[in-house]
Each structure stands twice: as structure tokens, then as C-alpha cells.
Amino acid sequence: MDSDTSLDLLHSVLNAVTLGAVVLDQDRRIVLWNDWMHRHAQLPPQQALGADFLALFPALRGTRVDAAIDQALRHHFPSLLSQSLNKAPFPLYASAAAARADERLQQAVAITPVDVRGAPRHCLIQISDVSIAVGREKLLREQTLVLRSQTFADGLTGIANRRHFDVAIEREHRRARRQGAPLSLLMIDIDHFKAYNDHYGHQKGDQCLIQVAAALSAMLKRSADLMARYGGEEFAMILPDTDADQARQMAEAIRARAQALAIAHAHTNDAGHGVVTVSIGVATRSAESPVDIDTLIGHADRALYRAKKNGRNRVEAQPSPSRTQCY
């Protein structure tokens, strides 16, 4: 079979499958749009191909889908979106009448990194219609998707979860100890998040977590760096080969980025803010301070506590080794 025949066959298969298939390049431009997407999104290929994904679907900016695409393209991290949390993220409809009534297909979405030989990384978005799933089959599918998505990814924000953090910090700590390299840890907490939830409601609170997680994780440039949801409104960022000064600079940039999101927060209790901010604690393991993992986390936690105590929307770091056993 020659290459042209193979390509024709592949094209026919992609158009024959009963699910949506969309491929994005590194710039998030659509390079594949199959017939299923044409039918249910009511967008022909000539309109979709070459378009910026978020220009075509602006409502998905800052959502779980947006975060999952970022994780796939930049960190080679696949995601399965929980169908119970993301029932119908794409504007897909069974018919024109359903579109007029805005009755979307119920969707199961998987986002997978794709390596193309000789080209930058792409990602594949697969969308299945689960609208007709009923009874036990539907329940089992939802539970399976939730369990699979939560193995190493947080179901709400799409970034790494606590289990992923535990595995990564153990791996990077071993490597830092073996190579005598620095390892920094940032503990990041959204200021007055309970007050935000109480005032704006849990749905807005979830959206706030998604926006902050997406914006801050997008600041990581190296594949070994990791941002995880540590619990509730607290995040942890692992920065291998990063010394104390570099970690402090990164933390300050993160603090500024969170504030620049300008997410309105009328109940911060902090004069002059009026927007969502974060406090950050920084700790570093170095050859001069070869602490274990629990001690490193403890240092970062205590630094975060000081940041909260000293006024919030600030960075605090563990003291230098000349003053204590840290750094």
C-alpha cells in the first residue's frame, strides 16, 4: 500500500468513527476536524481547519478543557475529563432543533498528547456522545472516568493531584540527593478563599480555582517542573535544579501573575486589593541543607504561614543557612 492510499484510508477511518476527533498543533490551531465534528458542531472543515481553537470556542478559555490541552501540549500529560463534572463542554448538538434549544450532547472527553516525527507536539481531542447511556452502564462509565482521571490529575483543575505530587517529590528528591542539585518547593494558597466561596458561591469558587491553576501552571517552562493541587485552595510547585534565589524570583512572579488575573474578590479583608491574591511559602533543599522530604514540606508550610500572618499577597522563604539549618 503506497503512502497516498494509506492517507486516504486513514482519512476515511477518521470520518467513519462515531466520535469527534480534533487535532491541535503546538499553537492550538486545528489541523484535523472529522465528519462527526462537522455534523454535531455544525461547522464544516473549511471553517474549522486552521482556526485558533479558543477563537472557535471562546467559552472554553480558562476551563478544564483549556487546562487539559495545555498539559498535553507542554507536559505530555493525557487527561480524561470527568463526565459528571464536565457534562457538555463543547457546543455539540444532535440536530438543528437541539441547537436552537441549546440542548447539548452529553460528552465524554479525552485529551491525549501526540508526537509527530520531525514536528512539534500535537494533541488529540476525542469526544464521545454519552447522551443515551442509561442505568448501570452509564454509572459505571462515569465512575471509571472519574477514577482514571483522578489517578494523577485533579478532576476539577486538570493539573497534577496530590498523588502525582507525592510521586514527583519523591523522584526529584532522590535525583537531587544523588546529583547534589538544588530542589525548591513552593506552597501556594489562595487568600481568603473561604470568604470568596461564601460570598460568590461554590460554582464561582470552582471557576476561581480553575483559572488560578491554569494561569500559574502555564508559567512553568520545563518538563520536570510540576504544579499540583495539594488540597482545597492550596497548590504545591516542585522546581528541580532551582536554588533559593531562583525559587524566590519564581514565587514573586507567580504572586504577581495571580493578582494580575484581576478576579474580583470583594471580601478579601485586605485594604487595597479587591481581587483574588495568593500567598506563597518557599523552601529549598541544597547540598548545604540536605533535608528530607517531610522537612522540606514543613519548611515551605511554615513559610506559607508567615506569608499569611504578615499580611497575605506576599512571598516568604525559609531563612538562609547562616541563620538556621535551612537553605
CATH level 4 superfamily of the largest domain: Reverse transcriptase/Diguanylate cyclase domain
What's the shape?
globular
How many domains is the backbone divided into?
A: 2
- Strands in their spatial order, largest beta sheet: 2-1-5-4-3
- CATH fold node name of the largest domain: Alpha-Beta Plaits
Helix content: 40-55%
CATH architectural label of the largest domain: 2-Layer Sandwich
Structural class determined from secondary elements = alpha+beta
SSE pattern? HEEHHHHEHEEHHEHHEEHEHE
Largest sheet report: 5 strands, antiparallel
Mean pLDDT: 88
Tally of strands: 10
Strand content: 15-25%
CATH class of the largest domain: Alpha Beta
Helix tally equals 12
Low-confidence segments, given as residue ranges, are 322-327
Tell me what the structure shows.
The model is unreliable at 322-327 (pLDDT under 50). The protein folds into 2 domains: 3-149, PAS domain (Beta-Lactamase, 2-Layer Sandwich); 162-317, Reverse transcriptase/Diguanylate cyclase domain (Alpha-Beta Plaits). The protein is globular and about 60 Å long. Helices cover 42% and strands 18% of the residues. A 5-stranded antiparallel β-sheet has the order 2-1-5-4-3. Helix 9 packs across helix 10. By secondary structure, it is an alpha+beta fold.
